[in-house]
Design a protein that fits this description.
25% helix, 7-stranded mixed β-sheet, alpha+beta, Immunoglobulin-like, 15 helices
Length: 558
Amino acid sequence: MTQNLCLSRRGALAFMTGGAALAGPAVARSSVDPARFTHGVAAGDPMQDGFVIWTRAVGAGTTVGLCWEAAEDAGFTRIVQSGTVQATAARDHTAKVDVTGLRAGQEYFYRFHSADAVSPVGRARTLPGGDVERARLAVVSCSHYGFGYFNAYRAIADLEESVDAVVHLGDYIYEYGVDGYGGPESRALGREHDPAHEIVTLDDYRRRFAQYRADPDLQAAHARAAFITVWDDHETANNSWMGGSSAHDEDTEGPWDRRRDAAIQAYFEWLPMRDPSPGRPAHVLNRVYDFGDLLSLIAVETRLTGRTKAPSASRDMIFDAEGRPDPDRFEAEVLNRPERSMMGVAQETWLEGALTASVQRGTAWQVLANQVVVARMRAPDFISVMPEDLLEEAMSRSGSRRWLESTRLGLPINLDAWDGYPAARLRLYDAARRSRANLAILSGDTHMFWGNRLHDPRDESFVGVEFGTGSVTSPGGYETISPDPRIYEVAEKALVARNPDVRFAHVRDHGFLIVEITKGALTCDYHQVADIQTRDGRARRFARITTNRAGGFQVQEG
C-alpha cells in the first residue's frame, strides 16, 4: 500500500491553494470551494503496470487542484496509488494521470476529489502479462451525436461480463454543423450539434468534445473499462488526409495544419490517453498493447501521418475516345499507383517491426486496430440484382439512379478505404507474410458490420481475417437508395456474392462487436441495439464468427 496523499487536509489545502503543506490529520471536510466534475471519469491506454485516468473539473479559478486514488476495491479501503494533479484552463479544465506501479491483469477502481467534491468512480483493468489464455474486447466506431442516442455505449457499460478494454476505431465526434450531415435528424431528436457551425478552431473542437462527453451513456462506458482509441477522419474533417480534407476550404477556413493541430490538441485533452512524446509529431498515433503471449493489439494511424489524397471515380476517371468511362484504365493508371499511401513509409516500416517483434516473442495473435475496411469490396451491379419494383422506385430518384448506374462499372465501392490504395494494401500483406503474423484486423468507418477473410489478389492465398463493426449511431446509407427495407437483404446478398473476401455482411442496424481471443481461436460476436431514437441500452447478439490460426472461418447467424 502507498501513502494516501489525498487524505491530508492541510496537504490538500496547500496543493489546491498553492501554499506550503504540513502533515496533518485526515478530515472529511475542508473550507476550499469544491470543484464540479462536469464530465465524469475515464481511463485509457492500458499497459501491464497501469493506465491513464482522466476527468474534467471546473472551479472558481483557472486552476483546480485535485487528488486522485486508485484502489483494489470499489469502497477504496485498499488504496494502492494516490497523488495530486491540476485541471487547468490551458487544457480546457481536463486532467490526466499516468498511473503506474499496478499489477498486471487486475481490475482497479479510481476517482478524483477536491475539497468536498468527489468524482464518480471508474474502473479499468491493466493488461495481463505472461501466459494469457483469454482476452475480451469491445469494438465500437462512428458515433454521430445527432443521429440518435448512444445506446451501444450504454449496452457496453451494462455488460454482464466485463471486457479487458474498449477499442474505439474512430469518428468519436463529428465535425458538422447543424445544417450539415445529420442536421434534420438532430433537430427532430433535440440533439443538435454545439457549436451550431462546422467546427474549425480549438474552441470549436473543445465545445464539441464537451457536448459528446456530457452524454450519460458515453460516460457510463468510459467508467466501465479502459478505452484504446484511434481517430478516423471526423475528429478533424471529412475524408481527411495528411494534406487536407475534401471538406476543408483554406480560403474560408484557414490553413489545414492549423485546423488539424487544433483538432488533435482537443482530442488529447479530452481522451484518456498518453500525450505525444516530446519531439514526436502529435498526429503520429501508432502504439502497441501486449496482452502477454496471447495477442499484440497494434493501433495504426491511417489519416494524418502518411495518407495521400484519396482517388475519386468522378474526379479522376479516364474516358475512352467515345467519352465512355474506362474503369480498367482507371484502376491501372490511377488506383494502382505505387505512391498511393495509407500510412507512409515510416509507419509501414514501424508496423512490420512491431509485427515481427510480436511473432518473435511467441505471441499467438497480431491484431490491428485499424480505421477503414481492408478487404476488397467491389460494387455489385445492383441494377441486375434488385427486384423489379424495388429498382423502379429507386431509379425514379436522380441521386439513387446515378449511384445505381455507377455500380455497373464494377469498381471498388469505397475508395476512401484500403480499396483506394491497393499498392499500399499489398505492402501491408507483404509485411504480414514476412513477419509470419497471425493477422486479424478490426475496422470501423462504414457504419456496417463485416466478416472478411482476406486474400492476396496476386495469388488468392490467405492473409488474415477482418472484423468490421457497425456504428454507434451513424447511418449506413442504403436507406437513401430506397426506403423499402428489402434493400438491406438485397445489398447483403449481393456484396457477399460479388466479393470473395466478404463472408458476412450486415448493412443495417447499429451496435458493436465483442471479440474474444484464445490461443487457438478468435470469436467475434456481433451485437445490435434495439433502437437509437429512444434511450434503450438493450442489445442482442445477431451473429457469431469463429476463426482459428489455420484460417478457418465459421459464420453463425442468430
